[in-house]
Every structure is written in structure tokens, then in C-alpha cells.
Amino acid sequence: MTKKNEIHFRKAETSDINAVWEIIQQSIERRRKDGSQQWQNGYPNLQTVESDVEKGFGHVLTVDGEVAVFVALIFNDEPAYSSIEGAWLTNGEFVVVHRVAVSENFAGQGLAKKLFDYIEDFTKSQNVLSIKVDTNYDNLAMLKILESKGYTYCGEVFLAGGVRKAFEKVLI
């Protein structure tokens, strides 16, 4: 008998791409319905997902074996972060959080918040003590999550054709 609601965090695999792409499309539509401009210009697309998985950036949260949440975690590499209107908390190594997307099947269950706990544990396990993330000014759901998880607003970055709010959390 399998345990109900068994949650795992792992690297995304090639076999996850179709499920992840479906989740990204659901998230694009959810952003649109919420009135957000984020992800409304053809990005992210299927090639973005394939690249994330191929490069080892893609990670998934599964619930009872079903892909529920996707995220791209990238170490020390976000060119847009080199010029911030404001200031980062640290200048050392960091993990960038991009493309957080939750399946409609699991929306409203707190999995995005839980994802950030896994991201923090993963980041610490790599001996990296800082997480940086940006989001659209009108992505209220993500702004609330970042606030609830203790991320500090650092300023604005220009990314994906627009100005984004930038946040950092130091894991010490």
C-alpha cells in the first residue's frame, strides 16, 4: 500500500518534459487570467523546458509520483542580475530560481511554498548560501510566497523584456 501524498524533489528527466510543458502552459494561462503580464510573450516555451532539463537546471516536485511543480535552478548565472537598480545582499555564489510553475491539479495546496523549502535545503547541500529570484511586479502569488519565506527585496532588474522585482535570501 502506498503512502498518500508522498512528496519528492528531484532533477527533472527527459521523460518529464511533456508533463512540465503542460504545467508551464497552465501557469501561463493562470498568469493571464490573474491579469499578470508575466509569461505572456511566448516565454517560457517548449525549447526553454527542454534546455532546462538537458542542462540539469530543471527540477520537479512530485506528489505520489506525479509531477506537480517545476522549477529551474541555475548556479551563479543570470546575466541580468549583474546590473540591479538597488543592491544584492551578497556578492558570493548563489542559486537563481526561475520558471516556478504549479500544476492545476495541485494549485492552492501550498506546494509552491513547500518547493522553496526544498530549494533552500538543496542550495545548502551544494554549500551555496544565497538564493536570488525575480518576479513580475504583478505576480501577486509569487510576491506573497517570497514575503512569507523571508526573502528581502533588493531592487529591480531588467529581464525577459521587462522590469522585475528582485529578491534574495541568505541561508546562514
TrEMBL record:
Name of this protein: GNAT family N-acetyltransferase
Entry's Gene Ontology molecular function annotations: acyltransferase activity
Record's keyword annotation contains Cytoplasm: no
Stored Pfam families: Acetyltransf_1
Gene3D superfamilies in alphabetical order: 3.40.630.30
This protein's UniProt keywords: Acyltransferase, Transferase
Protein's UniProt keywords contain Acyltransferase: yes
InterPro entries reported for this sequence: Acyl_CoA_acyltransferase, GNAT_dom
EC assignment: 2.3.-.-
Limits of the N-acetyltransferase domain: 7-172
